[in-house]
Amino acid sequence: MEKQIIWTKPAIKDLQNIYEYYSEYSIQAANKLVSNLHSQTLNLLGSGNENVGQIDEINIKYRRIIVGFYKILYRILENQILINRIFDCRQNPDILSKM
Whole-model pTM? Predict the structure, then answer.
């Protein structure tokens, strides 16, 4: 069975918040950033690519990929790659330990 990416509600909300914040300054920049974050998750679908991310040092039940200032946290569950959160690395990292 082929792997699929599943976005959790918190991850979708994170993406929406990122878009809303940047769209206040530039809709083009907001679209580009959100598109880039989304496309980086699609790269996880390649054979063996789901393990490309490192184990997160703050919350070890997640793997992470870094895209610009953003950390995309995900988990691998059999044939699913679950996108859990998108975190701005400029924020206080203690927030991640409560996720």
Answer: 0.84
How far is 83 from 22, CA to CA, in rounded Å? 21
What residues contact residue 37 under an 8 Å CB cut-off, 6+ apart?
Answer: 15, 18, 67, 70, 72, 86
Q: What is the mean pLDDT of residues 66-73?
A: 93
Q: How many CB atoms lie within 10 A of CB 90?
A: 8
Q: Where along the chain do its domains lie?
A: 4-90
Give burial (CB, 10 Å; 0-12/13-18/19+) of 40. middle
Query: CA 52, CA 92: separation in Å to the nearest integer?
Result: 25
Look at residue 29 and give its three-state secondary structure.
helix
Tell me, what amino acid is at 27?
A: I
Which CATH architecture group holds 4-90? 2-Layer Sandwich (3.30)
pLDDT at 96: 52
